[in-house]
Structure formats: C-alpha cells, structure tokens
Amino acid sequence: MIELKSAVCPECGGRLVIDPLSPSTGKCKSCGYSALISGIPGFSAEKAAWMNAVHALEDGEIDKSDKYFAKILETKPDYGEAYFGRFECAVATAEYYKGLNSKMARCWPDYVEAINESLNKFARRAVQYAADEETKQTYEVRIAEVRETLTPPEPKKGGLRGFFKK
After folding, report:
1. Number of structural domains in the chain
2. Per-residue DSSP letters for 80-123?
C-alpha cells in the first residue's frame, strides 16, 4: 500500500503537483513555485502518479485522476489500490450523470451501460488484487454501498437498462 503524503510548497504551503515523468520536481498549484523534491526518500514515479491521481480525484478532476490511475496500472497491473481508484472515478462519473438535467435522459442508457462496465471491472479487480484481507474487506464494503445507493433518476421517456449490475 502506498502511503500518501502531500508534497507542500515551501513558499506558500500549497499543494505541489508532481510530474510522474520527472518525480524529482513539483510545481505549486497555488503560486507556481517549482521545487526539487528528490530529497524525499523512496519517492518514485509511481508514488507521484498516485499522489496526483488522489489529488485530482479530490479536486473533482475525474478524467485526469483516472488517467493517473491507468498510468500506474501500466507498470503495475496487479495493483489493487489503482483499480479501486479507477472504481472511485467511475462512481464519481456515475454520480455526475445521475445528477444531469432530465433533458439528457435520452443519453443515459449509453452512459449507464459504460459506467456499469467500468464499475464492475474495476471493483472486481480491486478486490482480486487487494494488498491484504483488511483492504479487501474495506473495498467490498464500499462496493456494496455503491451498489445500494447508486440508482439513476427516472427519465421522462422509456426506462433504463440495468444500472450497476451485480
């Protein structure tokens, strides 16, 4: 399990965004200050991508976060936490589309189907590659919560195909 520690700007205390291609440097999102962070023991491109993925997810940048998690999986395809991160990105996407105006109802079936696929795939792999039993149980609880609460609004015309199939 990667321990997430925020890299903090020495100038303003803001969050440093780490470039996963050059994990020895970071740039502050607030003031633009560039800092060398190569002195952080054990800091790697994978940890930089992880940190950027989590920060992007926290900031509501779902697509960006998902891309960072996908980048981690390119080099470490059995990394359960990255799959769980992609699961959380899919949940956030589903919540976004769930909240759309009813004028978009005609598009929901396509989105629902795509989100179903992502949720199921990433949830299954997160559990499969969980680092330990405690992490696996945490994932399973969260997945069960999502299955119970993530339901689409009813569109004006026609019904939706199944949403987040078990």
Report:
1. 2
2. HHHHHHHHHHHHHHHHHHHTS-GGGGGGHHHHHHHHHHHHHHHH
- Enumerate residues 6+ apart whose C-beta is below 8 A from 143: 87, 123, 126, 127
- Is position 160 within any domain? yes
Same domain, 92 and 25: no
Clarify whether residues 50 and 86 are in a common domain.
no
Cα 144 from Cα 166, distance rounded (Å): 10
| Cα gap 134→25, rounded to integer Å | 34
pLDDT in tens, 114-131: 677 778 889 999 999 999
| Number of neighbouring beta carbons within 10 Å of residue 9 | 21
Tell me the C-alpha distance between 154 and 162, whole Å: 12
Q: Which residues neighbour 80 within 8 Å (Cβ) at sequence distance 6 or greater?
A: 125, 126, 127, 128, 129, 130, 131, 135, 136, 139
**In a shared domain, residues 161 and 93:** yes
Q: Quick check: is 26 in a domain?
A: yes
pLDDT reported for residue 78:
92
pTM metric for this prediction: 0.65
**Domain residue limits at 17:** 1-55
